Amino acid sequence: MDKAVILDKTREWVYQKLKADASGHDWWHIVRVTQTAKIIAEEEKADIFICELAALLHDIADIKLYENEAEQIEKIKKWLKDLTVEDHTIASVIEIIQTMSYRGGGRPPMKTKEGEIVQDADRLDAIGAIGIARTFAFSGAMDRLIYDPIEECEPPHSSQHLQIEHASTIQHFYDKLLHLKDLMNTEYARRMAETRHSYMEGYLKQFFKEWSGEL
Predict the structure, then answer these.
(1) DSSP per position, 99-157
(2) Mean pLDDT over all residues of the chain?
């Protein structure tokens, strides 16, 4: 099957599955990640088809959305096989999907340039102005507090990947989001991450000033 047709059919499949999501993992998250992945792929001279296909499908097996990751992976494999995608491409896409998640910062590094690119694109969408919006959307969907002063929010350290369950939204910045800038794989993503990271730091400063009644 023609690659353009494969991508068109996959877009529609993913859209139907994620169009109603309100946790920040909706269809427009997929659109942004896919577009960014394509841009980075061009910069890095990577396989754009694999990057785009993996970016489109990367949340279809996410444990934040689906309880059974293995079952979802099998659904993705079947979908791609039914579209007559070549076996080596399916293997590449599945490897990217299964490895790219943050999971407390302890996941193994990506094995391919395409994997690094899709991971970077996904992480870029988790920081900056959109990342802040998505974080509060996800926390609201999970019934988490905006902030609890009992938490000891501190600047992140390279070995500090806490991922505290049920932590507040603000704590999540320190558990994950402020680590992402230093975990980017490609030079293009590192440049983009600097600006988005600085925006988050400014947001947190303003948040705590308002929380304490200074502004």
Answers:
(1) H---GGGTSPPPSSHHHHHHHHHHHHTTSHHHHHHHHHHHHHHTT--S--TTS------
(2) 90
